[in-house]
């Protein structure tokens, strides 16, 4: 009979065990699961918050990067336009300087040509005067004496010497 007592169910023990089980479930749920779930919920909220903050930071970084790229593109375009304007200004200034230099060279050449012509006229006038004087001297000498061939040669040589000295 003893073996039968081990296998038999005692109703009060059974009810007490079930009540004990429900009481343990209630206490575990109340003091263990709820705080653990609260900690898990808070961690989940914190993780969600961190994810949202990371997304926001990524979006801000993307907008800053796109603004930076836009600013760099604008700066490159502005630098290119400044360089183009500087090149055009330099070319126009160069052309102006070349035109001015050509005009100045033309004016100097014209003045030099005029000076050369004037000096040539002056030299010719002086030469004409000297030739006239020499011709008068020769005519005077011819009139004073009768010229033979020897005297004629000496007069011509004198005349040529005077012309060479004058030039």
What do these coordinates show?
The chain is an all-alpha fold. It has one domain (12-166). The protein is 95% helix and 0% strand. It has three helices and no strands. α2 runs antiparallel to α3. The longest helix is centred in the middle third of the chain and has 134 residues, at 11-144. The radius of gyration is 64 Å and the shape is rod-shaped. The mean pLDDT is 84.
Secondary structure elements and pairings:
Blueprint: H1 2-7, H2 11-144, H3 149-166
Helix pairs in contact: 2-3
In short:
This protein is mostly helical and 167 residues long.
Number of domains: 1
Which class of secondary structure composition applies to the elements?
mainly alpha
Number of helices: 3
Radius of gyration, in Å, reads 64 Å
Distance between the termini: 173 Å
β-sheet strand percentage: under 5%
Order of helices and strands: HHH
How many strand units? 0
Low-confidence stretches: none
pLDDT averaged over residues:
84
Shape: rod-shaped
The main sheet comes to: none
Helix content: over 70%
Features:
167 residues, mainly alpha, single chain
